[in-house]
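Inputs:
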Amino acid sequence: MALGVREHVADSSRIDILRAAASCFMERGYTATSIDDVARRLGATKGRIYHHFPSKADLFAEVFRYGMDINFEALAPYRGMAGPALVRWRRMAKAHVLQMIDTKPFQRAVWLGVEMHLRGATTPEQRTVFNELIAYRDRYGAQFRETLLQAREEGAFRFDSPSIASQLMFMTLNSPIFWYSPRTGETRADIEAIADQVVDYAQGGLCKEQGTLK
Amino acid sequence: MALGVREHVADSSRIDILRAAASCFMERGYTATSIDDVARRLGATKGRIYHHFPSKADLFAEVFRYGMDINFEALAPYRGMAGPALVRWRRMAKAHVLQMIDTKPFQRAVWLGVEMHLRGATTPEQRTVFNELIAYRDRYGAQFRETLLQAREEGAFRFDSPSIASQLMFMTLNSPIFWYSPRTGETRADIEAIADQVVDYAQGGLCKEQGTLK
DNA sequence: TTGACAACATACCGGGTAGTATGTTCATCA
DNA sequence: TGATGAACATACTACCCGGTATGTTGTCAA
């Protein structure tokens, strides 16, 4: 506690690095991003980064972890929420979409991390760290899948394969990280309207009724 | 014509390189893929690749172009198709999804190319080549958007922002390039069933009617 | 005041990679 | 049949990047 100020300064510096790294990873991908790139964005040099993170892979992992941390926080208010599953699902979905918009660089990094893990582009040691992060991410996804199945039982959703439905749903809810970019003079209400459109689309897709047109 | 055989052999070798390159780009991304990686996958050396393509960027561009070429071919049967726009849309959408599944490596490369272009990760000279390819891809997307708007006029679809609707639709229809992978013993009918689920989801999302639940 | 340490910056090294320059082989054609 | 060039393989270079080893500076506790 006596060193509270010092620690706070150090933590702030760490988070600045994470933010810069997330933006770089978003703009150029993992491999194409050099440590010097991240340092340059900070107006600093490699020394600063390697003082806080042992390696590039570790830096990336921390960006991933931070991104998932704030995702869990955004979803926390709806854990164990009473009432119809569909209502809870809508609240969760909108919170998720807004999160994608508000913290795009970190969410792109999470996406990158999942991709890298799927194609096994990691060394055996990094593998254990990655496995933990992927498990972390799966726990997050499980909250949605659970609500999804519950809503189906309550008759609000009707889909065949839960796994495909889940993939399509996440694809929709995550998609703003690829196509959203802020407009000049955009208000918070505008952003919420976009989020609502995304959630509506997903909801419509999850209670398909047609399919009779061959 | 006298050299038809020779040309055919050369073309075949070229396409083999394109296929290997597409797979490598899919598995490791653009930057992390080395020319030696592609050569190794072919059981060859760099010489073979640089004999057919002047640079790594050009190789990638040709993979992109080939991917779009076969996309246009897959959609050709439905150009100017008569009848309701919704029916045409469903045919086009299903053809697109099947194409994503059948030629995944090339489609992932196209995705990569669009991402690279969006973040301007190209040299000025490559820029003109890329601009052409992106325009090529936009022409492809325009076929869908046109049908989309027509279907809305006919009352089959109802969405607010055409641009967001288009983004969400393509996100859905493209998504198999990220999550689909062939199962052992999978029949063509199984694949078509998956494609139908994807198309149904997109259709449901495009004619949302709810949204009254806040 | 002083030593000690955190928080960086600077200088450097080794491995990997895009691209090139130069063989080598084999089919084709005059 | 000999020459020519396509279709590669081999050998090499220059450069970039991850990582390390070593300064330098400001701050805080004693």
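The longest helix of chain A spans residues 124-153. Flag for discussion at group meeting.
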